[in-house]
Write a structure and sequence with these properties.
The complex is a heterodimer of chains A (240) and B (335). Chain A is of the alpha/beta class and 240 residues long. Chain A is 41% helix and 18% strand. In chain B, 33% of the residues lie in helices and 15% in strands. Chain B is built from 10 helices and 13 strands. The chains are: A alpha/beta (240), B alpha+beta (335). The structure holds adenosine-5'-triphosphate.
């Protein structure tokens, strides 16, 4: 079983033994635990401008997210998490893994440019693959989530990934949630969804991730993988 | 916000400051002076939109003499009386405090272990019998649950019984009026109701039977949905198409312990599940009634006590062919 810690922070070759292991492990997990899944892909801007307080607050937020999900009776068995970073180059930090199987999280460092488009594209590809695995194991799934966090804008070719994300979100096949940290290009980030990007109030990553875990608790407690779930309000972290 | 509430006669009582639970529509508060009672206060935005309509329903539910016994029913959190704030505005209602863990946790391949560590099949069947008996009483009074959300069925490991909450969402005939059930999770809904605007539909007994069969299956199969099928469509699409993978002529049973568990269930029980989910898909009359389920589950319990059936939650192997249960000799085992 691959843990966030064990795969981080060294760069991972695309296809390695440990990746293959983690894939078959997660299939076994889907066979023993057929709870409807909510796949969540975090695509994080870890470029140079995030260095210092922002990246620290982001890391703390992610840790809170994992802790709170694991504390929820049902969400811990339903949330599948994948993490991507865009800092210098786009990286898959962690392919989809059941929240229950995550034992730790090593903090991310910030440097370089912001290949957010490439990272988001990777996440969208992995989401498609994950959905195929769900279907082949007969595991129902909720609308997947793509959470995109940036304090600037993509420095690579991003239009293609943005179009895919916003198309899927318009068809309600994806909850795409672009979030801008101070200095972000909200107009550009908004292209990644059918709904406008939300500006993070200050560095309220803690509140953002608490909201995200509360949303996951609502989703995984809902009876149906086929309905809209009423999410908590975002006033604790979104600024107007 | 005030935490003193009154009944219609103006008697007041203090609520606990913080709600002990919250739902999408309401917050639920304990009442320190009456530990057996809780008060459900609807969220202000909900009241703003639907206060008059909701109050009419709650008042009818509490006043109709045909339904009066439900207020004392140990398996129901039936509304006892309306409550008002200090400005005499209607805010919600008082009810029995129900004990137990959401059935979503019990009907779950993993989560049950924490709250129900010693769970076995006789215990599962006991919860089902408790639930079915209560729903049967509701049906007799023309009350249809409509929204079979397992999160609203609380299972008490202490007593092995089930209590139903969120009664205000059900379809109720009270005070000479019908109050509809406007909501439901599509995964739990009979095919004839899929995609319908439920606020405009009178629910029928046969639709309840379909939902109950899904619930029964999910409980016996550790949360596995009967219409989870390998290879594509969602449970809701499979409900619409009557694609139930278990039993002869099925196909697409997911890998894992599910086939084993299924194979250990009594033949007659499986026969009725297959009937309800296949023939009953398009023909509501072909769905097994509560009375029939109760009979079959009692038989299952008796046969388990005679060791005809395995009592473990996840049998390690499929059932061998030479078993003693209630299967007619001439019938092949359906798998
Ligand atoms: N009678 C009761 N006894 C104990 N707990 C209760 C009772 N009624 C409600 N609760 C608790 O309060 C929570 C919310 O109650 P309920 O489901 O009735 O609210 P709601 O807002 O109508 O729900 P929903 O979110 O399903 O619309 C329940 O999940 C349960 O935990």
């Amino acid at each position: 079983m691959s843990l966030l810690t064990s795969l981080f922070p060294v760069s991972i070759p695309r296809i390695s033994i440990s990746q293959e292991n983690s894939m078959s492990q997660s299939r076994i997990d889907l066979i023993d635990n057929p709870s409807p899944r909510c796949p969540v892909a975090l695509v994080l801007d870890t470029s140079g401008s995030m260095a210092g307080q922002p990246i620290d607050a982001l890391n703390a937020g992610i840790r809170i997210f994992i802790d709170e999900i694991k504390r929820d009776d049902l969400a811990r068995w339903s949330v599948d998490l994948a993490v991507y970073s865009a800092g210098g180059k786009a990286q898959r930090i962690q392919d989809f893994v059941g929240a229950e199987q995550i034992s730790g999280f090593a903090p991310l460092a910030a440097s370089g440019t912001t290949p957010l488009g490439t990272a988001a594209g990777m996440a969208l590809d992995d989401l498609e693959a994950r959905k195929r695995t769900y279907r082949s194991t007969g595991v129902p799934y909720y609308q997947p989530w793509l959470v995109l966090i940036s304090d600037g804008g993509p420095t690579d070719a991003w239009q293609d990934a943005a179009r895919r994300a916003s198309e899927q979100s318009a068809r309600r096949k994806l909850v795409s949630l672009p979030i801008g940290v101070a200095g972000a290009d909200l107009t550009m980030l908004s292209q990644f969804s059918s709904k406008p990007a939300v500006a993070l109030d200050g560095l309220k990553f803690r509140e953002l991730f608490q909201w995200l875990s509360a949303s996951m608790a609502r989703v995984s407690a809902s009876t149906s993988s086929d309905t809209e779930v009423q999410l908590p309000g975002i006033d604790s972290w979104g600024s107007i | 916000m005030t935490f003193i509430i009154r009944n219609a006669a103006g008697e007041s009582v203090q609520l606990a400051d913080m709600p002990f639970a919250r739902g999408g529509e309401a917050a639920v508060h304990a009442v320190p002076a009456f530990p057996g009672v809780v008060v459900k206060l609807y969220h202000p935005d909900v009241l703003q939109k639907r206060s008059a309509e909701m109050r009419t329903k709650i008042d009818a539910m509490t006043a109709d003499p045909k339904l009066a016994a439900f207020k004392q029913h140990p398996g129901l959190a039936w509304p006892r009386f309306s409550v008002f704030d200090e400005r005499q505005q209607w805010r919600g209602y008082a009810m029995r405090r129900a004990e137990g863990v959401r059935m979503t946790v019990l009907a779950h391949a993993m989560a049950y272990r924490e709250h129900f560590p010693s769970l076995d099949r006789p215990a599962l069947v006991a919860y089902l019998l408790s639930l079915l008996t209560t729903v049967q009483e509701l049906h007799t009074a023309n009350v249809l649950v409509g929204d079979y959300n397992p999160a609203n069925f609380l299972c008490d490991p202490g007593s092995g019984t089930v209590a139903l909450i969120d009664c205000d969402s059900w379809q109720v005939d009270a005070g000479g009026k019908r109050f509809r059930c406007p909501v439901a999770a599509p995964d739990m809904l009979a095919p004839e109701l899929q995609g319908k605007q439920l606020g405009g539909v009178d629910r029928a007994l046969e639709s309840e039977h379909f939902s109950l069969a899904i619930l029964l299956f999910k409980l016996l199969m550790l949360g596995r949905h009967p219409f989870d099928v390998v290879g594509g469509a969602s449970p809701v699409e499979n409900i619409r198409n009557g694609h139930f993978p278990y039993g002869m002529g099925g196909g697409g049973i997911p890998k894992g312990p599910w086939f084993n568990i299924w194979s250990h269930l009594p033949f007659k029980l499986k026969e009725q599940l297959v009937r309800t989910f296949r023939e009953g898909s398009a023909n509501p009359a072909d769905r097994t009634s509560i009375a029939e389920w109760i009979k079959l589950l009692k038989l299952y319990k008796r046969e388990m006590s005679k060791k005809y059936h395995d009592t473990v939650i996840k049998p390690a192997n499929p059932k061998p062919k030479d078993y003693l249960g209630s299967q007619p000799i001439s019938q092949p085992i359906i798998a």
